[in-house]
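Onboarding guide, step 5: your first structure request.
Type a short instruction followed by the sequence, for example:

Predict the 3D structure of this protein.
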Amino acid sequence: MFWEVPPAILSRQGCNLEQIISDAGDHCHHNIMGIPEKEARRIIIKVPTHEFKICDSKGIRSLTESDLPSVQDPSD
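The system replies with structure tokens like these:
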């Protein structure tokens, strides 16, 4: 799951992207460098679910609610 960070956010924050190839060989992964963790959290929690993307066997597509694990009520 990923979010395509708008360039305006990166430039406003003075950030840059660092490509990290995962152990599985995923070339899509990037870390955002140069932003305090608190600020990054403040930004990401405001992003609507429909703006996230997911990679699957057919390529890149929009994330759907069915992609997310269900959350059970602990009182059940």
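Each response can be followed by summary notes, for example: The chain has two helices and five strands.
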